[in-house]
Amino acid sequence: MRVARILIAATALAAGASLIIATPAGAHTTKPPPTPTSTVLTTAVGAPFNLEVRHGRVLVADGAGLVGKVRSDGTVKTLVGGVEGASGVALSRNGKYLAYTHTVGGPPAGITDSGVTIQGPRAFTATADTLAYEKANNPDKVNHYGLADPSKCTLDPNAPQGVPPLSYTGAIDSHAYSLTAFGSGFVLADAGANALLRISRTGRISTLAVLPPQPAKVTKEAAAGFGLICAGDVTYNFEPVPTDVEVGVDGFLYVTTLPGGPEDPSFGARGKVYRVNPWNGKFREVATGLLGPTNLAISGGRIYVAELFAGRISVIRHGKVAEFLPLPGALAVEAGKGGALYAATGITGPPSIVRIDTRKGWRH
Superfamily for 3-360? Predict the structure, then answer.
């Protein structure tokens, strides 16, 4: 499953905003919280999928084809141009190495190239071919997707192409999407491989964790819409789609996942955040009930999430989800110094990068 499919759905939702649920379940307040202060830094972006805020720099991976730096005058300086499918960007912990992702291709023909490039001092360059790694290893082949009981349904012979399989294991797919610095290298959220991958500074790849299938109750009528003829309501195990990874103050990794299948509101708010042990790959669910979680940031002991289809930045504390800031087209969020957040918008709203002062937001 690739994020490209999510963006197609997002574009469709933009044409029908009435489908977007502005406040999913989980935001329980007796009165509206104070609205945090936000400042627009730039609108000179096209599809700002990810931000990196470190060492006094605000970097952006723009799906329009570049990795850039936001200047104080609102312009964006191109650091690396001609990056097809740019979506992830990260600086090493010492700030000397720049890593970014690229992905070539997409539906319906499929991905033909995906990976990470690392640049450093003295013209150092290394590449990590995640599609080649996927073809050789396919980390999520251990997962079983599809119907929990395939005997309950049959494929509709008259359905158009694209009917989901009754049952299958992880397919060959890679979409290098989001990056974070970890140790001397990086960790990649691969939205096609459904896994977290370690990327060394020299481009060597290894599997850190495979995320679990995402079960959903599907009515008989909804199944028919997907080309499945079922005797009654069924459970379908969709693929997890990791969209961002960050390092918490506890040294563990925190990951946002889209739930596979329909990521729009049609099946409800099924997105999640997981906490992953980077030393053994074990994970636990931190929160659910998110609508299109495409990015997260950790600041001041709180987890902030960009919910694309809810049009907001949410905050998670003690497993509870609440709205922090309405932000149409919320696509990315990153923590900065002094409690500030940096967020990017696009796809379902005008593209921009904004700075948010969390100190004036709702404190739990």
Answer: TolB, C-terminal domain (2.120.10.30)
